[in-house]
Amino acid sequence: MASLKILPLDTICACLFSRADGQTFHWAIILPFSDTHAHKLHATNRSDNWWRYEDVQDDIIHSVNACLVVELGAMDSSTHESIGAILKKIPMDTPAQDGEQRFTCRIWFRQALRELHAAGVIICPDVMQVEANLTRLAQSYDDYVWEGKGPKLVVASTSSVVS
Fold first, then answer.
1. What is the pTM of this model?
2. How many Å apart are CA 145 and CA 139, to the nearest integer?
């Protein structure tokens, strides 16, 4: 597993951002539009403690805490708007299938995968397995990121993650 030097264009990706504890991460969907930058689509409560959907441009390659980038599927440049339309409709509440868990960006990410799968944008029949696989990969790479040895990892084959 090597550090990511350029983002994979024409893809929809999962991106996990380290919280420097080796256990928890900020979860986002990214849509790369250049070698270094992507639209980051995610649930955030950073500015005022209220959860909200955000679609911002972010320099993923030079981020100090981007830990893991994994391709979830292919897309073309015209797909950004349709993906954004799907994701911004996700309520900032824990869906019934996730039980009584407190709402977080990870809960939003799960629902994003469900919605994108239902819309035929990605193939992801087992959201919980994908979450477990992404968590395992990010945890194994977290120390590496904070030691300054490489800010990200890309998994070229998603067959072991999206299944």
1. 0.90
2. 10
pLDDT tens, residue by residue, 19-77:
888 889 999 999 999 999 999 999 999 777 799 999 999 999 888 888 889 999 988 76
**Could you tell me the two tokens for 82?**
């349709």
The edge-to-edge listing of strands for the beta sheet with 11-18 is: 52-59, 37-44, 25-32, 11-18, 66-74, 154-155
Alpha-carbon gap, residue 30 to 128, rounded angstroms: 19
HEC sequence for 96-153: HHHCCCCCCHHHHHHHHHHHHHHCCCCCCCCHHHHHHHHHHHHHHHHHHHHCCCCCCE
Instruction: Read off the amino acid at residue 50.
Output: W
Beta bridge partners of residue 54, listed in sequence order: 42
Helix axes 105-118, 79-87, angle to 10 degrees: 120
